From TrEMBL:
Residues 122-181 form the Peptidase M48 domain. The lineage of its organism: Bacteria, Bacillati, Actinomycetota, Actinomycetes, Micromonosporales. The keyword Membrane applies. Binds 1 zinc ion per subunit. InterPro entries: Beta-lactam_resp_regulator, Peptidase_M48. Keywords: Hydrolase, Membrane, Metal-binding, Metalloprotease, Protease, Transmembrane, Transmembrane helix, Zinc. This is M56 family metallopeptidase. Belongs to the peptidase M48 family.
Length: 330
């Protein structure tokens, strides 16, 4: 049972990793971003839970851990269906996942702090627009709260008035829709489960497409938006701090091709496919959890019976003696 549910979970993780990039191309970018980020978090939580549950009965047998719980280490050892070698591997995988998660989280938090410091003293010419006097073309959005758009005079001079409108609308979309946090969520999920790296890349592309579509709707010209994105990609040399959102991110040729076509339509079938994969992953996680609970319950109940039997026997003997004394007194 445990082997089957574990295999089902792994198949679901691989299936999500395969379907995620395809889903990002078939759905409107806003829907793709939400679906992939949510799915990545579910798969990440499911994978770390399954691996930890497989390792738990072996970890609980260690003398230092066994003393803390109401279970019998020998009974856990005899009732655990997971081989020792597999349990040790799972323990190592859990440790590696937590280490990667901690490192990635620290790097992203540090990057956000750097971004804040980078623009802390820059004067805003508008509500959230910061223009930097520099000949180097560049533009990016700082994640909210207190999100800002940073653009250099070099890039503004290189673009026409209409193209500047597209650029600023694109960067404003990054701020308004909190795109940096969607990207952060999938980066953390990918740190937990490396199979999710493809979905993290797909979300990075999807948020850029989302901002492109917002800009195209605002200016009312998809061809102009496509031309602006292409020109910005040729002009800008990426120097912005990590975790900042830029108009030159993602796969620029794919973004331009998408803008040259019709706006994306909603599709139900890819969403149903992803929902099925997530349901399989959650079902497998529940199956492994149930099996692990059974292993611990059997070990705990056995220990409880061992402690209960002598006490019961003593109570019965005591009652019997009391009755016997009572009968003799009669």
């Amino acid at each position: 049972m445990t082997a089957a549910t574990t295999l089902l979970a792994v198949v679901a993780w691989i299936g999500f990793a395969v379907i995620a990039p395809r889903l990002a191309r078939r759905l409107p970018p806003a829907a793709a971003t939400a679906a992939l980020a949510t799915g990545s978090l579910i798969i990440a939580a499911s994978s770390i839970a399954v691996i930890a549950l497989l390792a738990a009965p072996w970890i609980a047998q260690l003398p230092e851990i066994a003393e803390l719980g109401p279970w019998s280490a020998p009974k856990l050892r005899s009732g655990n269906p997971v081989p020792v070698a597999a349990a040790v591997v799972c323990t190592a995988l859990v440790g590696a996942a937590l280490a990667r998660l901690t490192l990635t989280g620290w790097q992203r938090v540090r990057a956000i702090v750097v971004v804040r410091r980078y623009c802390r003293h820059l004067p805003a010419t508008d509500a959230n627009l910061v223009v930097v006097d520099s000949d180097q073309p560049d533009a990016f959005a700082i994640p909210p709260p207190s999100g800002r758009i940073v653009v250099t005079t070099g890039l503004l001079r290189a673009l026409s008035a209409d193209e500047r409108r597209v650029l600023l609308a694109h960067e404003q979309a990054h701020v308004d829709h909190h795109h940096a946090w969607w990207v952060l969520a999938t980066d953390l999920a990918a740190a937990t489960n490396p199979l999710l790296r493809s979905s993290a890349q797909a979300v990075r592309h999807a948020v850029e497409r989302w901002a492109d579509e917002d800009a195209a709707r605002q200016v009312g010209d998809r061809v102009l938006t496509a031309r602006t994105i292409a020109r910005a990609a040729l002009l800008v040399t990426p120097t912005q701090p990590a975790q900042a959102m830029t108009a030159t991110g993602g796969n620029v040729p794919d973004r331009v091709r998408a803008l040259m076509g019709a706006p994306p339509r909603r599709r139900l079938l890819p969403v149903l496919g992803m929902a099925t994969i997530l349901a399989l992953s959650l079902s497998a996680s529940a199956g492994v959890d149930s099996r692990t609970d059974t292993v611990f319950d059997r070990a705990s109940l056995t220990q409880a019976r061992i402690g209960w039997a002598p006490a019961t026997t003593t109570a019965v003997n005591h009652i019997g003696v009391s009755h016997g004394n009572g009968n003799r007194s009669r």
